[in-house]
Amino acid sequence: MNPRPVGYFELLRLRPAYRQLWLGSVVSLAGDWFTLIALYSLLQQYTGKSESVGLMLAARFFPLALFSPTAGVVADRLSRRHVMIVCDVLRAVVTLGFLLVRSERDVWLVYALTFAQMASSAFFDPAEQAAIASVVEPGELVTANTLAGATWSAMLGFGAIAGGLVAALIGNEASFVIDAASYLLSAFFISRAVIARVPQAPSNGTWRHLLGLDDFREGLTLVVQSPELRRLVMVKSAWAVSGGAALLLYAVMGEKIFPVGGSPEFGIGVLLAMRGLGAFLGPIVARRVGGDSPEFLERAISVGFLVNAVFWFAFSQSPWLWLAALMLAAAHTGTSTQWVFSSSLISMSVEDRLRGRAFSLDMMLQISVLGVSSWVGGFLLDHTGLSPRTMMALVSVILLICGGCWYALRPRQSRMGF
Domain of 382? Predict the structure, then answer.
């Protein structure tokens, strides 16, 4: 008989280190959306081109892919708590740099500062994911990852609405200051968490070991030689094939098709907020229906691809903002279920000393694909006759194909069942 799954509030009460990590994520994630919506507004104001938004998204994704291999080694070698604190402080400083963007001539700063901000995130994220798995018990992993995913989603919803309002009513500068303050508050919470150091093998004195190349190769070998882990690492990147273009299209459709009272920032904010609501509900409802068993998590990921693709198509055809927002929320119940459950299965499959590297490889692959997808989406919108609605419909079909390919790669022994 499986033990009773631990509840979300119970987990926060029983695991003080996880509670501090969670509080840090609450404030910093909300602040992130203030900056993202403000950057959408700045780029549309100074360039008026969808491609510029695509380049900004690519600038967000590229450093995550570039630095992830090193970040995984750092997360497994150094104090994960110290890594996260340093990254938060650096992100606060960089975010204030967006205040220098005052005209079209300064747009290059958006790309440069975005790159620097996300370079710090590349080191923060694997350290955080690995730390979560190390401060809870194995039976609490799915609860911890679900709560982390739900927090991301809830803060997306809150941050998107609040960020859209702040950008529209007060100005983009206020959004950047709020985001910088959120990083510093996150660093404070994380500084209060007690996170054990990961035991490491002694150095063999070679330059490959000193540079972390041996550590990276060990993590890469683990993923490459394990068919089960390799397939889990493919979940997010399979979504990203169409996901990068979709994220761009949310901003474009919010601005050009669904502005609210002439304010594109608020139209974008509504769509992103409903994306957050759907992402919040997805894994929570799925756990309620099926529990925490690895077998159910695997099946739920497959269903998530289908749900996401179907409702993306419905979103592309929606004539009114309220209906489009509902369809986007429904789509992201599938997306978040895929992300949370695949992360939980990776945590279950990898020992603590290698988790940072496993998650960094997972990030590197998905972010590389997201960056290419977002740039290609912006290029096609600006240089072909495709409308945003047609593009979104095409994106949904591509996702369905990617999900079908992922499902077809399931282990042979499971093919007789779902």
Answer: 8-195+215-414
Q: How many CB atoms lie within 10 A of CB 337?
A: 29
According to the model, what pLDDT value does residue 416 have?
A: 35
User: Which CATH number belongs to the domain containing residue 294 in this structure?
Assistant: 1.20.1250.20
Which residue type occupies 13?
R
Average pLDDT of the chain to the nearest whole number:
83
Tokens of 230: 């390799």
Burial class for 294, CB neighbours closer than 10 Å (0-12, 13-18, 19+): middle
What are the residue ranges of helices labelled H in 47-140?
50-77, 80-96, 107-134
Among 312, 73, 336, which Cα is nearest to 209's?
73
- In terms of Cα–Cα distance, which of 413, 144, 414 is closest to 301? 414
When divided into structural domains, the chain yields a total of 1
The one-letter code for the residue type at 391 is: M
- Beta bridge mates, 260: 263
pLDDT tens-digit map of 37-89 = 888 778 878 887 767 877 887 788 788 778 877 887 888 888 889 999 999 99
**Domain-located, residue 208:** no
217 φ/ψ angles, rounded to the nearest 5 degrees = -65, -35
Residue 401 makes CB contacts below 8 A (sequence gap 6+) with none
Residues 6+ apart with CB under 8 A from 173: 99
> How many angstroms separate the first and last alpha carbons of the chain?
23
Q: Which residues of the chain have pLDDT under 50?
A: 1-2, 204, 207-208, 210-211, 414-418
Give strand pairing partners of 263.
260
